[in-house]
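Q: What structure does this chain adopt?
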Amino acid sequence: MKKQISLVLLAVLTVGLFASCNKIFFPEADELPAGAQQFINQYFPNSNILYFEKDGASYDVKLSGNVDLEFSLNGDWTEVDCNTTEVPAGIVPAEIAEYVSTNHPNNFIVKISRNGQHYEIELNNDLDLEFNLGNNNGGNNGGNNGGNNGGNNGGTQVNLPEAAQLFISQYFANVTIAHVELDDFKYEVRLSNGVELEFDMNGNWREVDCNTFAIPAGIVPQNIVDFVTTSYPANFIVKISKEYQKYEIELNNHLDLVFDLNGNFLYID
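A:
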């Protein structure tokens, strides 16, 4: 009797599962577009399709080996996420592969997505880069000397104020601009080495975030540099933001310190 009840319960749960997930298919359903099947056979010949889901205007596919793929309804790939392994050669456009090889020789691409001529990639060090191949910008959305403009999600051109351009040229002379966005009356800039910058509408810097390495000399006021050197000799500054009445800095040990505009220490945040 208990066995019969269990079987009935299992049947009810199974029906409920497929009723609520009726867009999920398994390999034997063979409902992927031919283009998607050919793509998988070409670039992932040793992987198995675990399952796929038709979600609105796309197919989401899960392969063995922890690979996630996304295709349009006609079978064109829109995203390849290999998570921790390298995206197979041939998927990444030659211009992007060459840019990464030149500028990030110790890293490789683990994820790529595309929308028309706009590509976004992720490297194995978690650095995200954007490319607009239609502009032949080589990943820097215009470079960092004079003509540095970039896409702002919709592809609209954004021109940095001259003061911001001079700041980047002075302190990050050998680094290219990966992305520029005008958002809420401020310019948000991401450089090809992962540095994130923020400028006001006049081009004055408001935040410099170098993530894991030291902020270039000259950006941080000398009083703050002296305080950190004396009080935290084993650490260095990786981030600084300038607000109306204070500076906030972050050290490479994740300690946050607050100073007034004259560089006098106020408190640990």
